[in-house]
Structure formats: structure tokens, C-alpha cells
Amino acid sequence: MASNCAVRLVIPNHMKIYAARIVAGLVLLTGVAHAQASEPSTSAMVSPKGNTGDTNGSIEPVKPNAPDASTDDSIELDPSSLLPDLPPVPRTNATLVGGTLAKLDRVRDRVVVRVFGGGQMVVLFDPRTVVYRGPKEASITDLREGDRIYLDTILDGNKVFARAIRLTAPHSSGQSQGVVLKYRADRNELTLRDSIAPRPVEVRISSATKVLQGGREVPVSTLVSGALVSISFAPDGSGHDTASEVSILAMPGTQYTFAGEVVHVDLRSGLVVLRSSTDNKMYEVYLSPSTTPDDNLHPGAQITVVTDFDGSRYLARNLTVNP
User: Fold this and answer.
1) CATH class of the 254-321 domain in this structure
2) The pLDDT value given to residue 259
3) With contact defined as beta carbons under 8 Å apart, do 197 and 100 qualify?
4) Residue 303 predicted with pLDDT over 90
5) Distance separating alpha carbons of residues 87 and 27, to the nearest angstrom
6) To the nearest 5 percent, what fractions of the chain are helix, strand and coil?
7) CATH class of the domain whose range is 95-167
8) Judging by beta carbons within 10 Å of its beta carbon (0-12, 13-18, 19+), is residue 297 exposed, middle or buried?
9) pLDDT tens digits, residue range 80-133?
10) Cα separation of 133 and 213, whole Å?
């Protein structure tokens, strides 16, 4: 019976009227949309550079123009090109200064060097300074505190400027200067406090080693403790350095007179560094605390100083600033 029964849905009249209105509205909207789609849009009809004779009806979109390469925005400048070039290094005689690098100040562009006698010297550098490691060129970044260095220095006004900085490898052949600590004849071994080495240096004395004093050859026994010497040496292949020549520069208790140009003055430590007019070498002279320095004592001044060598440094007995 259930399959033969028909279900009749009774819809009220007001619902029929509401449904008819919805259908009519949809028909109206469909017609409006069809009319709008059949008409070409205004933006599609306008082509600023279109070809009216084009039959395929395709319209190419307008592409933005590429920026002109000649405009100021497209010019790239290297900021370093705006800086003025540094003047060339003055062509003056350079003074060789050896020491241990105590401090590298890359903010102020300067190095502090511990030189012979325990004093210190401040030397300036800039991009004109050339750094060498052996025969090859290096850079300032290769410098390390404690390195043994030699500087070709010149005076720039009242300041010392490094024209070149040379890094030397330890145990390389060359020259050294220092004070004799002891000489052991039984082992043919000379120990000295090198002027720029942090530890005592030991070199061997052979039968071929020449010992000179005042240009004359003297016995090896002349090498007493406290003598200031200059040594030329070379590796002997067994891990030791053998001296080919030892030159005695000063004996303790001996008086020496120097004349030359002042290179550096440090009144706080009483240090005066001069370049001798006799041999063009650098010498450090210390002023006595009771000494009143001359007002004209400054870098570039010509002086004559009488000193006593006490076995470690030259002490000024009398200092005169020459006119």
C-alpha cells in the first residue's frame, strides 16, 4: 500500500507568489549581464598606439619604458674616487729603526715599538707605508704584537713616519745588537740581551769569528759582561746561529760622545733618540732625572751629548743643543 500512495505537497498561495518573484528577478539579472558582456569595455577599445587596420583584434598591452641609462640614478660612483690622492712620500734619507712591536693602533694609524735600551717610539703609518715579509710584500693586517720589525722612518714635521715596515723571521741570517750577558769559552757560546728580542740570544763563536773593537781585531776574551756589541750571524745548519763578526761598540764604564740630529724625544722617560752624523746610526741616550732639558730640545735639533755607558744604556753627562 505504501508504494501505491502518492504524496501531495500543498504549497500555500503566498509562497507561490514569492517564488515567482525570485524567478523573475533572476531572469532580469541574466539579461543585464548578457547585455554588458556583449558590449566591449571602454578600456579595451582605447589603444594609444594601436593600429586601426589590425584585423585580428588583439591589443598589445603598453609596456613601461626602461629607465634611461643616462639619468643620474643609473650612475654608480666609487666612494674612494671622491677622496683626494695622498701626496708622495718625501724623498729624504730614511733612518732604520729596529724593535719589537709593542702595540698596533689601526684607529690612530700608528705603531709603538720597543727599541734598544727599553724605550719606546711611536711611529705613524698610512696607505703609503709598504709592509714586507722577507722579500714579499705584505700588509698592515699581517703585523702582530711581539713581532720583530725594522722600520724605514722619516721625519714628517715633528712626527716619525714609517715609509716601510719589514717583518723578519726568527733565526734568519742578519745582524743583531745587544749587551753581552756572558761568554762561555768552554762552549764557545756568547749570550747577549738582544736590543729587540724578548729573550736572551745565544750565538756560537768559531775559530773563523772576528772580534773587532775600534776597527781593530781583538781577542775573544775582550767580550766581557756589559759590553755593547753588534753581531753578524748566520744559521750553521744544526739549529744554531754562528757569528761571523762581533763588533764591540761600547764597554761598561767608558765615556762616549755623540753628535747628530734628534729624531725622537720623550721627556717623561728622559729618552732622546738621535741619528749620529758620524755613522748615520740611531742611538738612545737617557737624561738624568736631575737634568733640566733645553727648551730647544726637539726633533730636528742638532745636539752634542757626552755619555757614560753603564753596561745597559747611555747616560747623558752633558747635552748641548747646537745653533
Assistant:
1) mainly beta
2) 93
3) yes
4) yes
5) 90
6) 15, 40, 45
7) mainly beta
8) middle
9) 455 455 556 555 555 677 778 889 998 899 999 887 545 688 999 998 899 988
10) 33
Q: How far is CA 231 from CA 195, 223, 242, 260, 310, in A?
A: 12, 12, 10, 24, 20
DSSP-derived secondary structure letter, 108: T
Of 143, 144, 98, 145, the C-alpha closest to 117 is 98
Amino acid identity of residue 45, one-letter, is: M
The DSSP-derived string for 125-179 is --TT-EEEETTEEE-GGG--TT-EEEEEEEEETTEEEEEEEEE--TT-SEEEEEE
Pull the grid cell for residue 65: 619604458
Residue 320 in grid coordinates: 748641548
> Which of 42-51, 138-147, 277-286 bottoms out in mean pLDDT, i.e. has the lowest?
42-51
**What is the amino acid identity at position 77?**
L
What DSSP character marks residue 56?
S
Decide whether 95-167 matches 174-250 in CATH topology.
yes
Residue pair 112/124 in contact (Cβ under 8 Å)? The answer is no
Q: Which CATH architecture has domain 174-250?
A: Beta Barrel (2.40)
Distance from chain centroid for Cα 169:
19
Backbone angles phi, psi at 165, to 5 degrees: -125, 130
Grid cell at residue 57: 583584434
pLDDT at 46 exceeding the cut of 70:
no
Q: Domain spans of the chain?
A: 95-167, 174-250, 254-321
Q: What angle do CA 123, 126, 130 make, to 5 degrees?
A: 90
